[in-house]
Amino acid sequence: MTQAAHAAPDLAPPPTLEVRGGRKNFGAVHALRGVDLVARAGEVTALVGDNGAGKSTMIKCVAGIYPFDAGEVLFEGEATHISSPADANALGVEVVYQDLALCDNLDIVHNMFLGRELKKGFRLDESAMETRAAEVLASLSVRTVRSIRQHVASLSGGQRQTVAIARAVLWNSKLVILDEPTAALGVAQTEQVLQLVRRLADAGLAVVLVSHNMNDVFEVADSINVLYLGQTAAQVRTKDTSRTEVIELITSGSAGMAPGAVAPKISPDAPERATSATATTSDATTTNGSTSA
Ligand SMILES: Nc1ncnc2c1ncn2[C@@H]1O[C@H](COP(=O)(O)OP(=O)(O)OP(=O)(O)O)[C@@H](O)[C@H]1O
Fold first, then answer.
1. Superkingdom, according to UniProt (predicted)?
2. Which of 15, 145, 241, 278 has its CA 20 to 30 A from that of 133?
3. 3-class state of residue 182 by DSSP
4. Measured from the CB, is residue 162 less than 6 Å from ligand 1?
5. pLDDT tens by residue, 204-242
6. 27 C-alpha vs ligand 1 centroid, how far in Å?
7. ipTM
């Protein structure tokens, strides 16, 4: 063994979330056929892929809506099973779905505490909820809402997205998954939401951003995980790739990757992947189980 092999152990903290070889079938449909995902604290990890690639299924498995049929999930380095949304919430996983699940007839404070209201005896503790909601919005530098007692019905699309994201971080969350947060927004509101996404990561959260929009991805993501036909085609550092390469990965599952990388062999009939070969925990480029520094 070389001296380098005896070098000091890697002191980097484990990723907040690591999925290794995740599989999910819906009857005869193999929605996930061996997916890997690494999401680190302080980073935005984009999850991209064509329609039907498996992005929604992946995030629903992480959120405990469907359990993975096979594969490993590690949370902060510990093996875990997420078999219900309550399990995911207990770990600190929050998901903001596209529909946002806001109640138009309630104000921002009540929406942020929806289903998890603070109580004083039998009554709602309005003042504690208002204080905490204001603190969270201030900590995220949200200045786009006029009053936290405003009804959500009167908010713009970007403001609604902001409220849904702020609600997700209210609960000491460690991993926030955002499903297409800018899909319905105009240019200025998209920019505000992307800045908020970046601030979440800068505040130390692990953020997974599901997106079809390469501008968004290249603007905020530190790494990009590409799904292709239910498999991980690559997880790459954003600085080490290009839009052309990511689009190639999305559309064909392979691309002219970094020198030394082995092109993935993904096809609709591909056999199960050798998950032992995956190396997504490193910062190296990982292409369907093959790694290049
Ligand atoms: N509940 C379900 N029952 C049966 N098949 C499903 C179910 N959910 C997803 N699928 C199938 O699993 C595959 C992956 O779908 P999924 O929705 O995860 O893809 P996606 O990447 O999120 O696509 P999109 O970008 O269009 O939302 C598709 O073939 C889809 O038809």
1. Bacteria
2. 15
3. coil
4. no
5. 999 999 999 999 999 999 999 999 999 999 999 999 999
6. 12
7. 0.97
